[in-house]
Amino acid sequence: MAVLEKRPAWRGVLVAREKTIQCLECLNPPFTMPQELQLEGAFKEAFIFNPCGMGHFVLRPLGTTANLVHKWIEFNTYLRNQAKVGVVLLQDWELFILPPKSIPVADLSAEVYYRARAKLKSPACVSQTQVMAGSTLRSGTRVHPSHLETLEQMHAAWVFGAVAELIDNARDAKATRLEISIEDMVLGETGTVPVLQMVDNGLGMNHEEIVKMLSFGHKRPGESDAEQIGHFGVGFKDLEVPIVTYKRFSSGQISLDESVCTKQDEEKCKKAVTKHSPFINDISIGAQFARIENTGTRIFVYNLEQWDGKCIFEWNRSLDPETNAQNEKNELEDIKIRSRRVRVRAGQTSKQVPLDFSLRAYTEVLFLVPSMKIYLQRSLVNTRNLAKTLQNVERFQYHFVHEKDPIKNKLIPLTLGKLQIEYDRGNCGIFLYWHGRLIEAYKRVGDMVHSADIGRGIIGIMDVTDIMDFGDGKVGVLNNKQGFTDSDRFSKLEKWLDKTFGEYWDNNFDKFGLFEKEKLKEGERLVHDAEWVQCMKCSKWRELPKGWCADDLVGDWFCYMKPFEGNCDMAEAVQDNVITVAINRDGNKKVAPVFVTNDSDASLVVNPESSTSSLDIGATKTLKRLKRSRPG
């Protein structure tokens, strides 16, 4: 007869940043624990934490001093209000302290879940490269498992932020084509699992570059590169990540690059790959190299996060064109976040924000100047030039004054206008770009924050690269590239945006008041005021005639095709009815002359309050005629 030995009660302390939070007791510890539990600096998000299959025990507070009671209540209050899970890493175990279900009090016990720490090595990273002669590089790098969990939190709130990082890498590698898809692949005994694939035709990486990419703390660039989005270099350390490097000959044959990788290293790495990845043998690994025509990168992401027991993503499982044609909803191929959660923004009440959960909607506006074709589930994404889809457009100039170097003073343009589709959805705000890449969308400014109706449908576009690049490699952009740091420069910009939007809204309020929301009839869909499409050859934007929608143009589109039926030598059309607003040195607002072509005769628009010339009467008539011609 077997007798289980009961472990004695555990008593110790919970510590954070070398300061004691509380003295604790566990009456039935499941394993031997050290007297000091060190709380990690990174917390998990409670809403994505899944304790399924984990063990459980309870920690009771022992400390009765005012200081310990205060810290214990403060700690639990933080977990509850911020929906966080505390993490403690032991040598063989991971502990997760859950937020309390009730208001924290002095004698509140803590629920703790635990699991064994993974001992397996991470999947191998296979690269194809040519390495300079004489280089001495190791065939692996090291990463600590806890650091991987810390990095995981960077994009835990919005998974598309992580996908955007991979898109940035492809663009920085000068790729002209990027394919994003999710397909089911077999993963050992686990069975079929969804795998996110990112395939580009960029420059790829050699052995030295891939080791650097997988290393933590390599040197940050000394200055900002206008052509590069990647900047922060967040890598890994202390857990071995095997790397195998092959070289390919002109005949197509590949062989091990023994200048940087030994036969023993190859066998070790391939063993890890075949055990922990969907690639089970040399044939499946070699097939990936065969699909790279010249240079490029292929990335496979599996073990994707779960939502309600299913993959966090939803996508078109069948990529057969005939099957897609029978789609009842007639939707374009897409990858969507299953939860359909809308991101939290100050003042926003609308729940119709496709950009927050549709990868197609996000990639349509991800770059100001698209230079790379993106295919989603094998369907081309029609990128949108936001500025060209606006109505009642005015352009303003932000006077950026550098703190030290007057030569770096610049005028930064802001485009404001109304977008009917966003009006119907109840959205508004400024799209802020950095190096031509979207950082913050629908940023509400001024009175937009306080009322859902003020600014409704108003969209702004601004690239703040010169403002948020501080020099010496320092930038005012968060590491996850989903927001800006709190700085004096950004604070001044926000105040200017508040004031500028207020002036624009006041001056155009009468026009916007005429727009009424109409219910869509059966079979109708929301469309933009003006539809533009970009030629895949010359990259010029062509305006589509009434009745045409850019989403209806399947596949690559060129100038000779319908409905434009022109050629690439033809000049790009200038957007009508654009008013440029600036400020005189005396502080008075002025409107720069622009040509408008709403009527058969082109007329010149000037400031109607100006005492200049005999154009006053004609200009005023043009402005009135322009107001009447605006769609309502």
TrEMBL record:
<keyword id="KW-0378">Hydrolase</keyword>
<dbReference type="InterPro" id="IPR041006">
    <property type="entry name" value="Morc_S5"/>
</dbReference>
<keyword id="KW-0540">Nuclease</keyword>
<dbReference type="GO" id="GO:0008270">
    <property type="term" value="F:zinc ion binding"/>
</dbReference>
<dbReference type="Pfam" id="PF13589">
    <property type="entry name" value="HATPase_c_3"/>
</dbReference>
<dbReference type="Pfam" id="PF17942">
    <property type="entry name" value="Morc6_S5"/>
</dbReference>
<dbReference type="GO" id="GO:0031349">
    <property type="term" value="P:positive regulation of defense response"/>
</dbReference>
<dbReference type="InterPro" id="IPR011124">
    <property type="entry name" value="Znf_CW"/>
</dbReference>
<keyword id="KW-0479">Metal-binding</keyword>
<dbReference type="InterPro" id="IPR045261">
    <property type="entry name" value="MORC_ATPase"/>
</dbReference>
<protein>
    <recommendedName>
        <fullName>CW-type domain-containing protein</fullName>
    </recommendedName>
</protein>
<keyword id="KW-0862">Zinc</keyword>
<dbReference type="GO" id="GO:0005634">
    <property type="term" value="C:nucleus"/>
</dbReference>
<dbReference type="GO" id="GO:0004519">
    <property type="term" value="F:endonuclease activity"/>
</dbReference>
<keyword id="KW-0863">Zinc-finger</keyword>
<keyword id="KW-0539">Nucleus</keyword>
<dbReference type="InterPro" id="IPR036890">
    <property type="entry name" value="HATPase_C_sf"/>
</dbReference>
<dbReference type="Pfam" id="PF07496">
    <property type="entry name" value="zf-CW"/>
</dbReference>
<keyword id="KW-0255">Endonuclease</keyword>
<feature type="domain" description="CW-type">
    <location>
        <begin position="526"/>
        <end position="576"/>
    </location>
</feature>
<keyword id="KW-0175">Coiled coil</keyword>
<dbReference type="GO" id="GO:0016887">
    <property type="term" value="F:ATP hydrolysis activity"/>
</dbReference>
<comment type="similarity">
    <text>Belongs to the MORC ATPase protein family.</text>
</comment>
